[in-house]
């Protein structure tokens, strides 16, 4: 049932105003069992969250153009006009639907690796837009898992999901506070560490094996020495005067080359 509300201060809207920390605390984001909530924007992202089995909490929709996906909700669906949804969502041009979901559980690194052949590994990639773009690249190019250290941005953050267009639900991820230790224990994976170091091996000379993990680090500092020591250093050949690409662009090229 659609519940029309015309007061932006209605207490039922308070949940849609929560920031990232309000949706999920640091401890909740580290909980592999699933804790806290995430917010999905737009009918495509919301539909993909539902298709993936995510449990809805509530939705806010355009009263004049209720998206079809809203009728799938077994949770409260509130409707308001554009001005109300602008105030509530904080967006200049609010989506026809925004929805809150319970954060799902996720596998451990070992559990994820056991069922994957191609893994993207992120260290200190703290920009949610970059994480979202990397997820979309990896999912689109047929990779089947993502591992992040605890300093990388949340794949279920509002901006990550928006940039990834909901593909985060098709690319399972694991998070760890001990990335180097976990990677050292991976069985049967070739590890390739992306670096601008001119002494590294050119990416286009790599013949990828059956199981591959591509390691991508911070745009500022790159991968730590600890992670590079575990991997074969690999570089994308660049034109003179340019040392590297944006992490998201580099991930697309890497995922294509090592697919």
Automatic annotation (TrEMBL):
Pfam families: SpoU_methylase. The keyword Methyltransferase applies. Keywords: Methyltransferase, Transferase. The keyword Chloroplast does not apply. Its EC number is 2.1.1.-. GO terms for molecular function: RNA binding; RNA methyltransferase activity. GO terms for biological process: methylation; RNA processing. It comes from the Bacteria. InterPro entries: Alpha/beta_knot_MTases, Ribosomal_eL30-like_sf, rRNA_Methyltransferase, SpoU_MeTrfase, tRNA_m1G_MTases_N. Residues 119-255 form the tRNA/rRNA methyltransferase SpoU type domain. This is Putative RNA methyltransferase. It comes from Ilumatobacter coccineus (strain NBRC 103263 / KCTC 29153 / YM16-304).
